[in-house]
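DATA SHEET
Item: assembly model
Revision: 1
Owner: S.N.
Input lines:
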Amino acid sequence: MTSRIADPARWRAGRDRLDWAAEFMPVTAALGEELATAGTVAGLRIGVSDVLEPKTANLALTLARAGASVVVCCVGRDTDDEVAAALHHEGIPVYADSRATEAEDRANVLALLDHLPQVIVDDGSGTIRLAHATRPEVLAGVIGATEQTTSGVRPLRVMQRQGVLRVPVVAANDARTKSWFDNAHGTGQTVVLAVVDLLGEPLAGAEVVVAGFGPVGSGVARHAAALGATVTVTEVDPVAALQARFAGYRVDTLRSAAARADVLVSATGVAGTVGVDDLLALPDGAAVAVAGGVWQEVELEQARARGARETGRSGRVSALTLPGGTTVRVLDDGHCLNVSAAEGNPVQVMDLSFGVQLAAVEHLVTHRETLTIGVHRLPDEADRRVAALALAAFGGALDTPTPRQQESLEAWLPRPAPTAPAAAGTDAASDP
Amino acid sequence: MPDDRLATAAALPAFAALLASARTQQVLAGVSRRTNLTLAGSTAVVVGDGPLAAALRRALHRIGTHVVAAAGPRTRVAAVQDGLRTLDPADLADLAAATGELLGGGRGHLLVTGEGHAPLDPTRLTGVLGDASLRATGFRRATRGTPVRPGVVRLGSSWVVDLPTPLPDTLEGADALSWRVADVVVALLLLVAGTDAGPDALEEADVTLARLALA
């Protein structure tokens, strides 16, 4: 078995953390059992390209236990070497090393593609896109791919519009069970508490500005407010901005809000969200963090090009002195904070996301003859199935629509005309 | 400052609010970092009657945690008005059974604050346990558990999370938020320095502390 990892001897510590996560992943376990029993993925080659931490490792193990030949890759920045060693110890080829350079990261993705995966489980769609760009011959054998991030689905839809996408993709990200929970609750908790951890300052009383009020931004806003912060939301979409206003937050332009921010969190997943002029508007000592997850969501490179320079560093917090003389604190060099400065989103929330990923894999494989090339939504039935499993795990019960309710849901005729009124003096109409 | 004066200080509104807020954020960041478990959607039993328990309940409730207040009747009646479920301390004797059911098969959180309750025996509890108290008075000293990951040990049918100490325990490597807790304590001590630390002096110091914090 080939692997490129930092240190195979570190497997035991990784194994312990995998076991801990598995205790809280009932949805992944249940769906894995179903896949194994049905033999859906038996003998298939599946490439998992994701942040490599205990939860994703359990996803890879689940697919392997269901009979698939699994191979895993991850960029160095998002690799936990103990976890990589634990997966390697379980017999899964792993191409992931926290020390990897950018060139080595790319080589590791290509190494995964060399295994000729028939299904690609992706995070950020980097592997799917690299296959299209550099290894198109691999795509001929690909049944399909799944993608679990907003920022990863977006370029895949662009590829579809431009006619260059060559495989069916299930946008696992768009499943309600994924985006309503992982993006909002998972990223919200992890990012906000990582900010507290890194800054070493309570958020109570702080002015927190959240750029973007999609699922991630709304989760960041809610968690910050829960810890006592005063939250201002900035948006380009008036509907989302109105939602933020109705959620009780101040809504303002980014430039205006930045001027009073103690903490600015970009949660859009769009490059260039926080421009250099926005950074210049920040008060001295303000902190900047990214919850979205694309390169240069905060334009740090452009800021350096305009004369900004790093004037201090403490762990993952760097001091960036701007041309105007103010100094802002940049958290984890502008990388997506929930991945880079914490252990990824919470276990039970990722359990939902990986339940969706497994359902997406099952959908791709069982509908391989009929799925067209393009970006598809996960069928609602599969989405509901994952949610029902999770609801049972969290503690909750469901109603089933009654026949009367079903009839009402499927009705379209207007209400029938009222019957003729009763004779005068025989009903309540005669009451004084 | 003598212990009885400390108890008085702990009841000062501004000092208590600042201390509880700082400790709450330290505890929640610690739980999140140590366990990587979700707060929203989970159930959390918060044991205690004081400002720290109130701050924990409030923050968790706003996050989306199903909070259960395990406290005396006055705290419970206030918690009910806030839409929280409650647990009678009389049930603490059988907390393992109570929390096992409440915490979704023992997979929710149980945070003790040491406020208004005797130290609990963690070996008789179920769930993911954390001692949020300011003086490590939430749990009886436990036998050593089995490490399952950094900062978490298994103890019987529960997991115990090693939360950061409220105040810095070393100059290097202390939990960063502990300096904020220390800041609040030292600020009050400075404000009462040179006074008799009597009720009036404490009251005046608390108002000054509030003004400083607002500024």
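QC remark: The interface with chain B takes residues 16-17, 19-21, 23-24, 54, 181, 185-186, 188-190, 193, 196-205, 222-223, 225-228, 342-344, 346-349, 393-395 of chain A (CB under 8 Å).
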